[in-house]
Every structure is written in structure tokens, then in C-alpha cells.
């Protein structure tokens, strides 16, 4: 039934209709009384009519009072809460709020929840509103977590920084108390833990069957009450209740696994967040690994894996500056394999390459930590020895020369004898102005070593005119 509208307010209409029905009820009430057999002269009097109409109006007023004091507050509260939710959502949409670590939507607090006062339709509306707000909050949380994750992923290309950002998010959303990122290392042809936080002995993870299967077969695994994983809690080491091993894929290619240790189970919303992070992590890790590889390639020589000339020169420049500032010595050795062309010509280029690698391998055995071995040219090497006096560098050069002489390069059943010539220079024994002058002197000494018969070390201090060159 459609009741005609009298004003633009439903409650006001209700009031008017209640008063009209009250009035009409009061008006027809005396006629009913007559029908029931009460004498007309007692009922059909202005006084009785007046009293009856007043009673009808009072009834209308009472009914409206009930609507006003019971129904109206619930509707009013609902309206206000809706408005609060809308305002909070608006605030949340601003870029600053979406960047913040924690989402502040009030959507769970009393501020946005309607009290359920009845089991009728109004109660149902209030309950549905609360559930709607809850769903809204959860979907916002998911969206917010993903925004944070995307921002974190885009902010860095370093694996460690990426791991820290991801761990932060996992902790904030209570997705994990500890985490490890394991990737397949092409260089080593093995799994490698590239980031770990909160898990004790993460290096063991690469040997776990479940981790290997996650990487090799893309199989996820959730282990309840694992016996062999420990989480590093704030004050103590605890056993996590759950460990998830999730494969990380990029464009359908399995590139690693994510290991998460947790003390409590995940809710549905957390599972959604986790699966979104898992999907996004593939690209992020791939980018970080590519970045690492590019950096490695940019500084390393492809054949030997030691520093290339460009990076070696940069390092020498830094070390020379440091030596000058701190007035500490710095030595430089230039090394060249003798008659290398004839090794190439006699045995072929691949054997020449092996000879270069062998010299590098022997070079590493005589150097200390902090010494810098550089492939300077084809079969020429530069060794920077920060903190070493020229006498010490000469000893190192001699030791290396001996090692090379004593070591045979095997090619089938042939034994190839290698020798090297070395030139040594040092600062401040030689008062050079910059590292280029130091290289020039070490190079000159090397030339002298070649000229005077090869397989020897020449100290640049004893070069003819060396003083002149340094003054
Ligand atoms: N196999 C191989 N050979 C290289 C590489 N880089 C440079 N060479 C070769 O190294 C040789 C260098 O020869 P030279 O500069 O004439 O010197 P050498 O034969 O060692 O003679 P001395 O230095 O005077 O004892 C050249 O034949 C280059 O082609 C490399 O990466 N691998």
C-alpha cells in the first residue's frame, strides 16, 4: 500500500499520519460504543466526542514518541556512523595516509560500529552495516598492505634492503615472525639463502627437502610444529608453530622459495595478503638478482672473476687517496706472463686462458685480505697492496714468481712451464704525486724485468732516473 507523502521528512509524515489516525479513531469511537449498546444520549455528547478525540490524539502522540525515542536514535546513529566511515575512507585515500605504515581507518573501533539493540529489521540493518564495515576494513587492509609492498619493492634493488622491507610488512600484518629468502644461484649451481631475519641458522634451510622441492617442483608446504626450525624472539629462542615454504616464481620460472616461520595461524585476510606478496615477490627478487649480477659484471673480469681494469683503477685511486691522507704506505705490483703469445700459438687460445686463470689462482694464495688483484690487460695484472711497504711488496712478488715457476700447467700429457715478470713500486718510498705516476713506475720496472731476461722482480726504486721521475 502506498501512503501519500505529506512532507520531505518520513518521520514528520509519520507524525502527521499518526495524529490524523488518532483523531479519526477518537471521532469514530463514540459510534462503536453506541453499536455496543451504550445509550446514545450518554455517548453522543460534545464532551464525550472531545474526550474521545483527545484520547485518539494522545495515542497518536504516544506512538510517535515510541518512533522518536526508539527507532530514530538507531537510524540517526547509523547515519552518523556511515558519515564517519566515509570521512575516514576519504582520509585514508590521501597519498600521505596510504604511505604510512599502519592503516588508521577506525573501521574496527567503536567509532564506526553501530550498536545492535534489537533482533528485528533495524537490528539486521545494524548488523549488516557492521559486517559491511568489517569487509571494507579488510579489503582496505589488503589494498594498503599491497600498496606498501609495491612501494617497498620499487624503493630498492638491493636484496638485503628488499628483504628488510618485506620482513617489516610481514611483521606488521602478523604474517611471520621470521623469514628467509632462498634463491637458485646459477654461478654455484646451488640454492643460497640471500636474506634471513628472525630464523636461527637460516643457512641450513637450503638442505631441507621441502625447500628443495619448493624450488625444483614449485610445491608449497605448510608444516605444523616443525621440530628443526627456531625463531629468534625478542628475549628467547622459540619454536614456531607453523612454517610455510612457498615457491617464488617469475613468469612461470621457479627462482627460489620463501620460508616463513609463525607463532600463530593465519586468518583468511592474512592468507590473501600473503598470497599477493608471494606473487609480487617473484618480480622483485628477479630484479634484485639481475641488479646484483649487473653490478658483479660491471666490476669483474669475465674470464678470471677478479676485478676488471676500470674498477681496479677506481679502487687504486681510492686507496692512493687514503694512503696520502693517512700517511700509510701503499705498494703496487705489475705482473705480466712471459712469452704468453707463444703459449697461445703453440697450445691454442683455450690453454692460454687456462694459464691466465692459473696465475690468478696462484696470485690469490700469496695475497692478504684487503689486497686487490686486477686484470689490467690480456695477460697483465695489477696488484694493489694497501698498507704494504715496498720491501714487503717485493717479497710478495718474489713469492708469487716462485709459485708460478714451480707450478706446471697440464695440457693432456704435456707440461707447460710458465714464468712471470713483475715490477714493484711503492708510496711513499717513491714520492709520486698520484696513482698514475705509481703505475708508470711499476710498469717501467716490469719493462726492465722483461728486458733483463724475464722471470724476475724489479724494484722501481732501483730504476735509473727513478728519483728524477718522482721528484
Ligand atoms: N688466451 C688468451 N690470450 C690473450 C688474452 N688476452 C690477450 N691475449 C694474448 O696475449 C698475447 C700477449 O702477447 P705479447 O703482448 O706479445 O707478450 P708475450 O708473448 O707475453 O711476451 P712478453 O710479454 O714480452 O713476455 C697476445 O697474443 C694476445 O692475443 C686472453 O684473454 N686469453
Automatic annotation (TrEMBL):
User: What PROSITE patterns does the record tag this protein with?
Assistant: GGDEF, HAMP
Entry EC number(s): 2.7.7.65
Q: Which reaction does it catalyse?
A: 2 GTP = 3',3'-c-di-GMP + 2 diphosphate
Q: What is this protein called?
A: diguanylate cyclase
Per the record, its GO cellular-component terms are:
membrane
The record's NCBIfam families line, in alphabetical order, gives: GGDEF
Pfam hit, one: GGDEF
- TM annotation in the entry: 15-35, 47-70
Q: Where is the HAMP domain?
A: 114-141
Q: Which UniProt keywords apply?
A: Membrane, Transmembrane, Transmembrane helix
Cofactor needs? Mg(2+)
GO MF term list: diguanylate cyclase activity
State the species of origin.
Sulfurivirga caldicuralii
Q: Looking at the keywords, is Ubl conjugation present? A: no
